[in-house]
Amino acid sequence: MIKKISLIILICLYAGAGINHFIHPNAYYSIIPPYLPNPHLINILAGIAEIICAVSLAIPATRKLGAYLVVAMLIAFIPAHIYMIQKGGCMGAEICIPLWGAWLRLFPLQFILIAWAWWHRK
Fold this sequence. Notes:
Elements: H1 2-23, H2 25-29, H3 39-58, H4 63-76, H5 78-86, H6 99-119
Helix pairs in contact: 1-3, 3-4, 4-6, 5-6
């Protein structure tokens, strides 16, 4: 029962985060490192990826693939978390968190999220 509730929360988390990329795109543009081209396209692709992850986690036949996709996506998002640390946590008017919060987003939060998705691969 706990694993089922955990899975539902995980699905909702990624579906909501994916949708949020389209509702509040400016919040994401500021955390995309400047060395990456076309932040608008990256934001769209990240939103689509999170929605695909949520849908694939929701379908038993694709759940294992979905868990692996979440892990890959979270690894791909690490440069944004490092960039946020480099900028001291304040990325402009949209996102400003204390530096310690930016560190928590990278470690341990990313690793907790990876482990959470990994747990649902079976």
